[in-house]
Amino acid sequence: MAWRCSGGTNAELIANMRNASLITSSRVYEAMLKVNRANYVPSQLSAYQDSPQTIGFGATISAPHMHAHAAEALLPFLHSQANVLDVGSGSGYMLAIFHHLVDNGKVIGIDHIPGLVDQANANLEHDGLGAELKNGKIVNVCADGRNGVEAQAPFDAIHVGAAAPGIPQSLLHQLKAPGRMFIPVAEQDGSGEQNIYQVDKSETGEITKTKICGVLYVPLTDAAKQWRA
Questions:
Q1: How far apart are CA 179 and CA 74, in angstroms?
Q2: Lower Cβ count inside 10 Å, N or C end of the chain?
Q3: pTM above 0.85?
Q4: Would you say residue 150 lies in a domain?
Q5: pLDDT, tens digit, for every residue of 102-135?
């Protein structure tokens, strides 16, 4: 089970996820080893637990196994010069992981809470990625993630860290052909279910949606609603 992957150190957490086959590629394993999760969560005591944690501002950081799952799913499109979008960049954890997977590419984060953007940038600097913030290899934008970042599009890979009521057309438009999106979707059939979808765009622009697994994410919503939550 995923929650059994918790460790006493970052290396132990990542090794446990590999042993559980949640991490299957050496590239994802090495990238996640380079990013100490303790730099991206408020509590050092629970930094290496395989569970979601609150990070303030009505936001959470997902469980590490979901980050591993996302990185593995997007890996075919995370080549060294890829352009990557992280919607709901939160504490900046996935920005760091994506950077290590596309070291000569560019990683764009977007979050609609100014305090979270500031917090993420501080976390990235503390994790040794201040130069990447300055030279533009990592960019973190404060705006509504549902609209994407048109000025930086198209994106080889898009990761969405909150559940949307459907797949935003703006994100589909900004996905490169070919490209892949990893997104949790709140089903609109009255079931209350959320599922991860892998959304692929072919070279000719054809869209294929594949349901991966059931999940429970915070909603991709307005900043004011998130604060009230």
A1: 9
A2: N
A3: yes
A4: yes
A5: 999 999 999 999 999 999 999 999 999 999 999 9
